[in-house]
Amino acid sequence: MSQTIAAQPPGIPDLKNFTAQLDVGQLSSFFPIFQKGVTVPAIVGCTLKSFLCEQMAIPTDYVTERITTIFLDNRPVDDLDRTIIQEGSRVTLSAAMPGLVGATMRRGGFYAALRQGISHASDSGATEGTSGTVRLKLFNLLLAELGPLVLLRGLILERNELDELLHILSKLPDNAPDGVEKIFLSVSFSGVTT
Amino acid sequence: MDKIARIDMGAAGGPKVTVGDLGEYAGLGGRAMTSLVVAAEVHPLAHALGAENKLVISPGMLSGTTGSMTGRLSVGCKSPLTGTIKESNAGGQAAQVLARLGYAAVILEGKPVGDDLYKIVINKDGIKVIVDNSLKMMDNYLLVAKLRQEFGDKVAYMTIGSAGERKLLAASIACTDPELRPTRHCGRGGVGAVMGAKRVKAIILDDAGMKMRPAKDLDKFRDANRLFVEGLRKHPVTGEGLPAYGTNVLTNVLNEAGGYPTNNFKSGQFAGSSKISGEAQAELEIKRGGSATHGCHRGCVIQCSGIYNDKDGKYLTKQPEYETVWSHGGHCGIDDLDTIAQLDRIDDNIGVDTIEMGVTIGIAMDAGLIEFGDKAGAIRLMEEVQKGTPLGRVLGSGAGITGKVFGVERVPVVKNQALPAYDPRAVQGIGVTYATTTQGADHTAGYAIATNILKVGGDVDPLKTEGQIELSRNLQIATAAIDSTGMCLFIAFAILDQPETFQALLDMLGSFYGITMTGDDVVALGKKVLSAERDFNTRAGFTKHDDRLPRFFYNEPIAPHNQTFLMKDEELDEVFNW
Ligand code: SF4
Questions:
Q1: Is the peptide bond before B560 cis (omega within 30 degrees of 0)?
Q2: Are B39 and B73 found together in one domain?
Q3: How many CB atoms lie within 10 A of CB B539?
Q4: Cβ pair A74:B561 closer than 8 A
Q5: Is B50 a residue whose pLDDT tops 80?
Q6: Residue B252 resides in a domain
Q7: B460 or A71: which carries more pLDDT confidence?
Q8: Which of the residues B73, B164, B464, B504 could staple to B196 if both were Cys, CB 3.0 to 4.6 A apart?
Q9: Residue B254 domain-assigned?
Q10: Which of B179-183, B264-268, B421-425, B542-546 has the least mean pLDDT?
Q11: pLDDT (tens digit, 9 = 90+) per residue, A159-178?
Q12: What per-residue confidence (pLDDT) applies to B109?
C-alpha cells in the first residue's frame, strides 16, 4: 500500500489518505466489509437518486434496472427522488432477490403492500447539500459490480476495520501504522474499469 | 402417467398392490393429486399415524417430460404434526423417474400389523413390496449406500431415516439428488412419520427401459420449453442471483429489513448475519472445492443449490438453503457456517425437517437447555434426536411440543408447524399467509407467482390493508396451481416479471396435454385445490380461530421497527372468501 497525497474527501478533516493498487483477485477480500457496511464521504441532505447517480456516478440505467432493492436505515425504499439521505444514513443496495419476500422488498414492486409499516415514507424536498458521511452496504451481485467503483471513490476506515482488511489482503503489512485511528482509503484494481 | 398404484400395507397375508386407471383423478398431478385424494379418501378425524391415513406420492403434471424445472415431487397425507391436510414437496430425481414409469400417484394405504420393515421396488415390470429388516434404524446416508449395492446408481431412492421409523413429528422423506445423495426432503408436516407408520423404509424407483413422456404437440412443447428456459436464463434472479448464491442470498436482505428472526424471534436483526450470508457461503464453497451452483434434479436450469465441503475439502452436505441457515443460524444465535452445515447433514441423515428442527433447537435454547449461540450444544441436541433418547424424541416432535414440555411461552408455530425465516411483524403480508394457509405456517404456501398477470380478484391497491389480504389470497391460489405442475417454485420471479415466460409455461402445459391453457384455468385449478384442502381441515375440526399467529406476535414489538403484527382477525377471515 502506498501513501499518496490525494484530494481530501469533502467534510473529512485531516485524515491520512492512502491509495492502493491491487490485483483484481483481491477484490473479494473487501466483500465481508461491504456486507457489514463501509463509511463513504457524501454530500448529505440530497436525494438518494442524486447520491447514487451523481455522487457515486453509477449510471442511471444501472440504478433503475439492477439495484432493485434499496434500504435506507432498514426501511425499503420505493421512490429514489423522494428519499433524502442525512448525515450517518445507512444506505443498502441489492440486486433482485428470490422468493415472495424478495419480491416484497423490491423497489416499487407489485408486492410492496406486504411490507406496509416498514417502508420508507417519502421525504419532502431536498435541502442544500452539506458535506458528511453515509454508511453504505453492498449485497450479492452488486459486490463485484459496484465494489471497484466504491473503492476507487474511497472509504473512511476505523482502525479496527483497517486491521481486519490488512489481515486478509496479501502483500501488505498485517496492521495499520501506529497512531493511525482512521484513514481515507482509495483502491484501484489492475484490469478493472469502473 | 395414466395409472395409480395403491399399496395396501395392511392387507391380510401381506402388502397388496393394485394398479388402476386414473378415474376421477385424470389430468391431476403434484399437489392437486395429493390433496384431492386425501380430501376425498382419508377420514378427516383419522389418526395421522393410523391405518386410515394414506400417503400419496405424486409427480407433477409435467414431470418426466423434457420440460425444464419439472422435477418436483409432492407427498400428501393428513399431517401428524398439524392435524391438517398436508402437501410437502421436494426436488431430487424421484418425480422424473416415477412419472416416466407412468404413475400419476402411488398411494400407501393401511398399516401392517407386525414389526417387519419393507422396501418397495417400482420398475417397468411392476411393483414389488419386499420385507427387509436389515434396514432397521439405518439413517439415510448409510441406508442409500446399502441400497445402492443392491439396486445400483441408475435409480432414484425415497427413504426415511431413524426419525421416520420412530414416527417423530418432524420426520421427513428423503429423495436422492442426481449424485444419489439423500439431500432433497419432503420436509414439512411429518410426512416421514406417516411413511414410518406404514413400515415403508425405502422406495426404489427404476425407470430403465422407459422413455420420456411425449407431449401431444411435440413441436409446440419444444418451442414453449425453449422460450421458458430463455426466460429463466435472462432474468437476474433465476439467471444470476439464485445460481450464484442460492436462496441464502436472502439472509443479508432480510436482516437489513429487520425481518430476520433472531434468538427465537426476540429481535429482527442478527449481528452475525454477514458471516452466514449466501455471499459468504458461496465464497467458502468455491474456496473448498465444492460448488455454489448445482441442480437438485436433472433438467433444472436455475441450479440454486450447491455442494458444501468441510475444511478438508471433503463433501459434507448440499448447500444449506436460506431457511436452514436461518433456523440453525440466526434463530439459534449461531454465526458459523460449518456448524450449520453439520446440522444440515444430521437433519438429512436422520431425516427431519430442517426448519422444524432448527426452530425447535432455538426453543430449547430459550428454555435454558443450552445457551443461544452454543454450537456444540446444538449438535449435541441433534445427536439426542438421532439416538432416540427421551429428550431426543421430545425435540424430534417439533417446536410446539418442545415448547410445551419445557414451558416456553414464545413458540413460533401456526397449527403446530414452525414458522419459517421471516418475521411477520416486519413483513406483515407474510404473516397473513402464515396464519391462514391450509398447511400450517409455510413460506411456500404463498409464493411470488404471477398474481399480477393472473389478476385473481382484480387489481390491488398497495396502500390499503385489504391489499395484503387480497395478495395473500391470490398468492395462495397461484401457488397451489404451480405446486400441481411439478415446476419448482423458484421459477416464480421470471414468470412474475416476464409475461412471455408465463405464457411459455402455459403453452408447455397446453401443448403437453393437447389443450388450451389460460391464466383462468390456472386460477381455477388453484382454487379447486385450496377449497378441497380447506374443506378437509374444516371436517378435521379446524376453525377460523386456528388461522391466527401466536399471541406474542401481537404483544411483543420487535426491533428495529418496534412493530407488532397488526392485521385484524376479521381481515384474516376474509382470505378465503372468494
Ligand atoms: S432451482 Fe433449486 S430447488 Fe428448484 S429445481 Fe433447481 S436446484 Fe432444485
A1: yes
A2: yes
A3: 13
A4: yes
A5: yes
A6: no
A7: A71
A8: B164
A9: no
A10: B421-425
A11: 888 888 888 877 667 777 77
A12: 98
CA of A29 to the centre of ligand 1 (A): 29
User: Residue B316 — very low, low, confident or very high, per pLDDT cuts 50/70/90?
Assistant: very high
Q: Which residues, other chains included, contact B552 with Cβ-Cβ below 8 Å and sequence gap of 6+?
A: B265, B409, B410
Residues A31-45 have a mean pLDDT of 94
Mean pLDDT in residue range B281-307: 94
- pTM of the entire predicted model: 0.93
**The CATH number of the domain where B409 resides is what?**
1.10.569.10
Chain B residues with beta carbon closer than 8 angstroms to that of A28: 283
Strands (DSSP E) contained in B191-246 are: 200-205
Question: Pocket of ligand 1, candidates B238, B300, B444, B485: which has the most ligand atoms within 8 Å of its Cβ, to mutate?
Answer: B300
Residues B383-412, mean pLDDT to the nearest whole number: 98
How are beta strands A2-3 and A16-22 bridged, if at all?
antiparallel
Are A32 and B241 a contacting pair at CB < 8 A? no
Measured N-to-C along each axis, helices B337-350 and B375-387 cross at an angle, to the nearest 10 degrees, of 10
pLDDT single digits (tens) B181-231 = 999 999 999 999 999 999 999 999 999 999 999 999 999 999 999 999 999
C-alpha cell at A55: 455522487
What pLDDT is recorded for position B86?
A: 97
- In terms of domains, do B570 and B460 share one? yes
Q: Which of B403, B422, B441 is the last residue of a domain?
A: B422
Q: Same domain, yes or no, for B98 and B166?
A: yes
Q: Which residue of B has its CA nearest to A34?
A: B274
- Whether B336 and B429 share a structural domain: no
Q: What is the CATH number of the domain that holds B94?
A: 3.60.9.10
Same domain for B270 and B399, yes or no, is yes
Cβ under 8 Å to A: B residues 395-454 = 422, 426-430, 432-433, 443, 446-448, 451-452
Residues B276 and B417 grouped into a single domain? yes
- Whether B253 maps to a domain, the answer reads no
The dihedral through the CA atoms of B108, B110, B111, B113 has a sign that is: negative
* Cβ-based contacts of A66 with chain B (< 8 Å): 236
- Tally of structural domains, chain B: 3
Q: Look at B492 and A139 and tell me if their CB atoms are within 8 Å.
A: no
Task: Tell me: do B292 and B415 sit in the same domain.
Answer: yes
As a whole number, the mean pLDDT across chain B is 93
- pLDDT at residue B380 greater than cutoff 60: yes
Q: For residue B331, give its domain range.
A: 260-422
Specify the CATH number for the domain of residue B441. Answer: 1.10.599.10
Give yes or no for a contact between B366 and B257, defined as CB atoms under 8 angstroms apart: no
Residue B268 Cα to ligand 1 midpoint, Å, equals 28
Residues B242, A71: C-beta atoms closer than 8 Å: no
CB A181 within 8 A of CB A9: no
The length of chain B in residues reads: 578
Q: Which residues pair with B73 in a beta bridge?
A: B59, B90
Contact A32 B563 (CB under 8 A): no
Domain identity same for B122 and B172: yes
